Amino acid sequence: MRKSFLRRAICAGLLGLSASATAAPSCGGTGVALQVLGSGGPEAADKRASSGYLLWQDGRARLLVDAGGGVKLRFGEAGASMVDLDAVAFTHFHADHAS
Fold first, then answer.
1. Is residue 80 situated within a structural domain?
2. pLDDT tens per residue across span 20-79
3. How far is Cα 75 from Cα 4, in angstroms, rounded to an integer?
4. Largest CB tally within 10 Å, which of 10, 43, 61, 64?
């Protein structure tokens, strides 16, 4: 039941934020934004970071969803700080989402 609640809460939050996230020219600043850190799959040769997303609130990274290969590099490039994170969530435990 707890997993189901967490999934629904994350999905509802991401859906509710989609309009404001697309309107912002960049992540950070003020308000709420969703940043894609990676959208690649499990293929190592596609030269893309695997699945990873950051939810920003008022210029601070608050939630990291998935952490596939390459996401740590993109996390640093985004200027995010592990200290600011309130939570790290995984959609599932395949290598391209949790490495």
1. yes
2. 444 444 555 789 999 999 888 877 667 778 889 999 999 999 999 999 888 889 999 999
3. 27
4. 61
Instruction: State how far the Cα of 89 lies from the Cα of 49, in Å rounded to an integer.
Output: 17
- The answer to whether residue 94 sits within a structural domain is no
H or E element, residue 18: helix 2-23
List Cβ neighbours of 55 (8 Å cut-off, separation of 6 or more): 13, 14, 17, 32, 33, 34, 35, 61, 62, 63, 64, 65
State how beta strands 32-38 and 60-65 pair. unpaired
* Short-list 98, 22, 38, 24, CA closest to 71: 38
| Residue 99 belongs to a domain | no
Pick from 40, 45, 88: nearest CA to 68 = 40
Is residue 40 one of the residues assigned to a domain?
A: yes
60-65 and 87-89 beta bridge pairing: parallel
More confident residue, 10 or 66: 66
